[in-house]
């Protein structure tokens, strides 16, 4: 009885947080439908129970990028905290200032918080907002990749290194040359090549780089024009620079046409992730203001990718972010919601099993049942 009451309280708070965020939305015309999607999400969630529990409840964590290194599971999340900054469409309330790495001996085991892995004060070029990170292992070194705004309030992506998967990490003196926007995901292909996928619109600033240079003005394509694309670049062997140019990652519909900017339940918003299953490449991402994690399939790391469907239906809270990882022959989706706090900016990471159909498509996960 007590847990049911607490759930109801948390749900009510969540509805409040979502409504509060939607009401701050000054992009109302461009994202028409956002409010009704939000209402549907929260109304559905109100009667339903989460399919999984927070992995850790001593700190708030979000945007989980999971990896298996030496047989152990490591989760590289954002570290949410209450900065007291009012919510807005640019995500100013996500004012994170450090990273912690979580580790698990097994997928059903306890998650351990390994303390501060990188602090914003130790990143020479950083200004504010340490957002969704990722990690990789190469050259006998662990690399942490992280987006943070520089001192002029422009997002770039940095790299930091450690001899341990849980840090502490030492930041490179400058952002990775050629990076902009946010949400890096670093993918290792079977031939040993690494690729970085990145980008995010609205607060992620991707819309400010259409000319190839930063312009402090939001320029979005019209609804009937191709949507802004995520970006991809091959990593150099040193893992802290790009081998060649940053390219557009084109996501197309079933007819081979690029997804349009007005196609808000399918077009890219943020939260890139890449994985490979049975020789096919799966690029998954968040649709942002429509709150889905969706995926597209391709035949190589550069694309094009063809939209296939929904991986994860909307979670409680505004953001939806994930990673997809194989652990001991089974596949898992790491994601977050706001079960512990009921507040958009204080999230908690979770995990659930993910299943493929025989044709390689992914079964949609409902986070509440
Ligand atoms: O955690 C801050 C931002 O919220 C992330 O970078 C986005 O993907 C969204 O989850």
General description of the model:
- The chain is mainly beta.
- The protein has a single domain, classed as Tachylectin-2, Chain A, CATH 2.115.10.20.
- The chain has 2 helices and 21 strands.
- The strands form 5 sheets. Strands 5, 6, 7, 8 and 9 form a 5-stranded antiparallel beta sheet that branches. Strands 14-18-17-16-15 form a 5-stranded mixed beta sheet, with no helix packed on it.
- A hairpin with a 6-residue loop joins strand 17 and strand 18 (305-312).
- Helix 1 (2-23) runs antiparallel to helix 2 (34-46).
- The longest helix is centred in the N-terminal third of the chain and has 22 residues, at 2-23.
- The radius of gyration is 19 Å and the shape is globular.
């Amino acid at each position: 009885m007590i847990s049911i009451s607490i759930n109801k309280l948390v749900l009510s708070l969540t509805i409040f947080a979502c409504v509060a965020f939607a009401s701050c939305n000054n992009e109302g015309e461009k994202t028409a439908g956002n409010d009704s999607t939000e209402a549907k999400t929260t109304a559905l969630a109100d009667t339903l129970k989460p399919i999984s529990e927070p992995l850790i409840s001593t700190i708030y964590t979000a945007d989980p990028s999971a990896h298996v290194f030496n047989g152990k599971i490591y989760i590289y999340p954002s570290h949410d905290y209450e900065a007291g900054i009012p919510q807005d469409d640019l995500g100013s309330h996500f004012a994170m200032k450090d990273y912690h790495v979580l580790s698990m001996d097994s997928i059903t085991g306890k998650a351990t918080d390994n303390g501060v892995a990188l602090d914003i004060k130790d990143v020479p070029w950083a200004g504010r907002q340490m957002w969704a990170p990722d990690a990789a292992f190469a050259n006998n070194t662990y690399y942490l990749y992280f987006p943070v705004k520089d001192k002029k309030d422009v997002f770039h992506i940095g790299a930091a290194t450690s001899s341990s998967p849980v840090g502490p990490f030492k930041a490179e003196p400058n952002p990775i040359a050629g990076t902009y926007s946010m949400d890096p995901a670093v993918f290792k292909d079977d031939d040993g090549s690494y690729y970085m996928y990145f980008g995010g619109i609205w607060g992620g600033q991707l819309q400010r780089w259409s000319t190839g240079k930063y312009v402090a003005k939001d320029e979005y394509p019209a609804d009937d024009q191709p949507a802004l694309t995520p970006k991809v670049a091959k990593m150099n062997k040193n893992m802290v620079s790009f081998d060649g140019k940053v390219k557009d990652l084109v996501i197309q519909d079933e007819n081979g046409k690029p997804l349009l900017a007005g196609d808000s339940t399918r077009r890219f918003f943020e939260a890139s992730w890449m994985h490979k299953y049975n020789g096919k490449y799966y690029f998954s991402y968040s649709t942002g203001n429509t709150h889905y994690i969706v995926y597209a399939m391709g035949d190589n790391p550069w694309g094009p990718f063809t939209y296939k469907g929904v991986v994860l239906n909307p979670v409680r809270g505004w953001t939806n972010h994930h990673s997809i990882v194989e652990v001991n022959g089974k596949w898992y989706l790491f994601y977050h919601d706001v079960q512990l706090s009921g507040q958009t900016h204080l999230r908690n990471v979770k995990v659930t099993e993910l299943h493929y159909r025989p044709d390689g498509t992914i079964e949609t996960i409902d986070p509440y049942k």
